[in-house]
Design goal:
Helix content is 37%, strand content 14%. The chain has helices at residues 31-34, 52-65, 87-96, 113-119, 133-139, 145-161, 181-193, 207-214, 220-228, 233-240, 249-252, 285-293, 298-303, 306-310, 316-328, 367-371; strands at 12-17, 70-74, 100-105, 123-128, 167-174, 196-201, 254-257, 263-264, 275-277, 333-335, 343-345. The strands form 2 sheets. A 9-stranded mixed sheet has the order 6-5-4-3-2-1-7-8-9. A two-stranded antiparallel ribbon has the order 10-11. Helix 3 (87-96) links the parallel strand 2 and strand 3. Bound molecules: iron/sulfur cluster (2 copies).
Length: 378
C-alpha cells in the first residue's frame, strides 16, 4: 500500500527511459532475445524510437515532480540507445536540465558514438560477456566481440580527442564458462583503455519468465540458457526468501518508461500487461506510485523473493552460490561481487588480490550502476 507520508524523499531517484524499443542483438538472458510472441499475455511495448518532443515533456515533468535532490536518468532499459538517430540530442537535453545521464550499449555498432561523446553523458556502460567470440556468441547472440573491441578502441580515441571525462564501465556478465581466459584478457584490455571493469553475476530476465521457471514452466531453449548461469534462479529465490517482506527498491526509488512515454510497473517486467499508466506526463507521481504499490504482480514476485534477486540484495549469498559452480568448472578466477577482493586467481588463493582496472579520474556517483545491472542484465 502506498502512502506518501510513509515514503520519505529518496536520496537518489532513477528513471530508466527506453529511447529505443529494440536491440540489434538477441541475448538469451534478456527479453529482447528470449521472449517469444506466444509468451505475451497482452503484447509487446512499441519498438520504435522515442520522439524528441515527448522526451522534452518527460524531462519537464520529472523536473516538476522533483522527487529527489539527485535525479539520475538512464536512456535504456531493454533497447540499444545508440540506434536512436538523435541519441546525442537526448543526452544534451538531459544534461541541460541538470540531471545525471547514463547510457548502456552492447557496442556492436559505432553509430552516433562520436556525437554521444561530444554530448558528454556522465556515464557510459559497455555490456559484454567474453573476450573471445566462441563464448561471446553464446550469450550475446548476433553479436561480434571483435567489432565490440574495435569500437572500444574507437571510444578511447574519441574520449581522448574530446578530452572527455565520461566514466566508462565495462560490465562483464559472469557465467559458469567465462571466468577464465576471457575475463583475464578483458581485464588487460580495460587496463590498456583505462576503462572500469565491473564483473557481475549474469541473471535470467525478465520477471515474467523467471517466475514461470520457478513455477516449473520453462522451454528447452531457456533451460539451456539457465544452465549457463553460475546460479540457478531457484537457489537464488530460496536465498532471497528471508528478505521477501522488504520493500522493493525497483518501485520505491525508480521509474521505468517505454518509448511511447507509458510507465512500466518496473524495469524487471517486459509485457505490456504491466503498463501501469499510458502516459507518464499526465500521471501525478503519487498516483503512479499508488498504482505500482497495488499491482497484482508484486505479490507473487515478492513471495518468491524476486525483487530481492533483481536488486542484487541477496548479497554475499549470491557469491557463495556462484562459487559452487565456478569451482566445479575449475574457472581460473574466484569471483565475489559482494566482498573484497572481488577477483582472486584460483591457483593462488592466498596471493595478493587482483586489482580491477579503474579509470584514473575520479568517478561520479556510481551507486546505482552497481545496483542495477539492470539489472536488467544490462
Ligand atoms: S542484453 Fe542488452 S545487448 Fe543483449 S539483447 Fe538485451 S538489450 Fe540487447
Ligand atoms: S515487487 Fe517485483 S513486480 Fe513489483 S515492482 Fe518490485 S520487482 Fe517489480
Amino acid at each position: 500500500m502506498y502512502e506518501p507520508t510513509k515514503h520519505p524523499r529518496n536520496k537518489i531517484f532513477t528513471y530508466w527511459i527506453d529511447i529505443v524499443g529494440t536491440c540489434n542483438l538477441r541475448c538469451p538472458t534478456c527479453p529482447t532475445g528470449n521472449f517469444l510472441d506466444s509468451e505475451f499475455s497482452v503484447g509487446r511495448n512499441p519498438t520504435g524510437f522515442m520522439d524528441q518532443d515527448l522526451y522534452k515533456k518527460i524531462l519537464e515533468k520529472i523536473k516538476s515532480d522533483n522527487v529527489s535532490d539527485r535525479i539520475e536518468i538512464h536512456l535504456y532499459t531493454w533497447g540499444e540507445p545508440l540506434l536512436h538517430p538523435k541519441v546525442a540530442e537526448f543526452v544534451t537535453m538531459t544534461k541541460k536540465m541538470g540531471f545525471f545521464c547514463g547510457l548502456s550499449s552492447n557496442l556492436n555498432l559505432d553509430k552516433n558514438l562520436k556525437e554521444v561523446v561530444k554530448a558528454g553523458p556522465d556515464f557510459f556502460r559497455i555490456s559484454l560477456s567474453a573476450f573471445y567470440q566462441g563464448n561471446y556468441k553464446l550469450t550475446h547472440k548476433r553479436g561480434d566481440i571483435r567489432i565490440v573491441k574495435s569500437n572500444m578502441y574507437r571510444l578511447r580515441n574519441l574520449l581522448d580527442q574530446n578530452k572527455s571525462n565520461i566514466t566508462v564501465q565495462v560490465l562483464y556478465h559472469v557465467y559458469k564458462h567465462n571466468a577464465s581466459d576471457d575475463l583475464a584478457m578483458m581485464m588487460k584490455l580495460c587496463e590498456e583503455l583505462e576503462f572500469d571493469l565491473d564483473p557481475v553475476w549474469a541473471f535470467y530476465m525478465p520477471l515474467e519468465k523467471s517466475l514461470d521457471y520457478l513455477n516449473g514452466k520453462v522451454s528447452d531453449e531457456d533451460k539451456k540458457t539457465i544452465n549457463m548461469l553460475a546460479m540457478d534462479p531457484t537457489d537464488v529465490s530460496k536465498a532471497a526468501l528471508p528478505y521477501r517482506d522488504e520493500d522493493c527498491s525497483l518501485r520505491k526509488t525508480q521509474v521505468t518508461l517505454n518509448i511511447d512515454g507509458s510507465v512500466q510497473l518496473c524495469c524487471a517486467t517486459f509485457d505490456q500487461a504491466y503498463v501501469v499508466a499510458p502516459s507518464f506526463i499526465d500521471t501525478p507521481h503519487a498516483e503512479l506510485q499508488r498504482r505500482r504499490y497495488s499491482n497484482d504482480m508484486c505479490g507473487p514476485c515478492m513471495d518468491k523473493g524476486q525483487h530481492i534477486y533483481f536488486s542484487y540484495a541477496v548479497g554475499k549469498k549470491l557469491d557463495d552460490l556462484g562459487e559452487q559452480n565456478l569451482s566445479k568448472k575449475d574457472s581460473k578466477f574466484i569471483f565475489k561481487q559482494f566482498s573484497k577482493p572481488s577477483l582472486v586467481l584460483r591457483s593462488s588463493e592466498n596471493a595478493d588480490p587482483i586489482v580491477l582496472p579503474r579509470a584514473a579520474k575520479k568517478k561520479q556517483g556510481l551507486s546505482l550502476y552497481r545496483f542495477k545491472n539492470k539489472l536488467l542484465g544490462r
